[in-house]
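ok trying again, last paste got cut off:
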Amino acid sequence: MTSKQPFRFHTLPQLCVAGGTAAGELELDIPLLLAKGMEEILVKLRGSVHTEIRGKSGTMQETSQLVQLSISLWKRGTAHTASEPHTTRIPFEFALPSTLPPSFDFMGMDTKAVIRYFIELVGVRPGTFRMNKKCIFPLAVVPSDPHGAELHSALQFGWDGPWTTVRREGQVRKALWGEYAKAEVELTLPTIDQFPLFTPIPYSMKVITFSKTMRRTDACRDKAIFPAPPLHPREIEFFLRRSTNICAQAWEVSSGERVHCLGSMCDRNSAVHVSNAEKVWIALSDDPEKGMWKQEATFSHAIELKCSPTFRMDTITNEYSLHAEVSFGGLSNKVAINIPIVIISSMASSADLDFEAPPLPSPEYSRRIDRFRSRPLNRTAQAWSSQANTASFSHSFSAHLTRHASMPPPSYPREPSQSSSSGTSGARSPALDLPPSYWSSNPSTWDCQSAASQS
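nice, full thing came through this time. structure:
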């Protein structure tokens, strides 16, 4: 049975915006604080960046402090002790610097990079053999980005702007010899230079195949013909890839990882809309009985990004790309698309944390979005993101692409919105996808719990 504790947090933030505030409320049990010998209760906001590289000759580490703020909430002998009831609630609020980089946690084979923020509660117990009591509550931070907030508004009800299609093709065959067949993969996305967090971004992926030259009677219309398009979304690799450059003193290492699957492609009960077209016979001009079969499948849904945004600083560079790959069986029978992207925050201030997680976009949104195109990163993002990020993204779209001035948006089923609740009010807020190691707190003799977890 858990013993009674002298404090607990209420409405502790899960996600904060640089330049906004991190606010909460602390409930104190005054008699219990006095019984434990507490003289003062401090609340501290801490943030740091840590990099580590391990090699054969040793380990290099580098740590820098990003923010150090403290508030004294209670002291023995104050009005709270003399006149307040047994328990009292005291609000607190920290003003976050506008230049803070986003929360980040990466661990490779021999590398580690963490940008971590947390609120620390300190119970001060003066005396030579009386140690202070501490508890840590991690929180996530994202940069403020008004442009990302506008893009979020433009996308959450559907995209009414231009679309961009990236196309890749390859030759495939069943065996090591014989005539090649052809396969094409097209990925269609809204024409935006930056991808905002916590925003449903519609996409359409089309797989088109052309068989090798054959006689029309050699194939049965009721059976798939090699190369056959995938029938289920799980047969397609569609994921977000992270590229990280880490510096620790004189050492520097670059590495990458697959972050997570995109667009519900990996879900067992996928909500991706699948459309399979009828096979089409394409006859040769000189012989109508000889030709090739065209097969086509289209997968449509929306992606929602919840990772740390793109950023660049002295010791850490974090970049992303969208990767789509379709395999047709056999050796090297694959067609892949890789698109470098810039991921930005979708929030302009802490007030934006109260928005409801939006449903998947629908084509009924009719707002003009031309003014959202080709905008530069905000000043904070420019400080972290290299010009090469945006340049590489634009270059990837300059080859094998088609821009559609007006194109019907991909179709997909609507889903109920889902998001985590925080605090006791039940208000919904987005959550940054960080590994469990980021949210782990240091061991403490206090059983620190939030009001939400105790309700």
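cool. Helices lie at 30-35, 79-82, 146-156, 379-384, 387-398, 436-439, 451-454. The radius of gyration is 27 Å.
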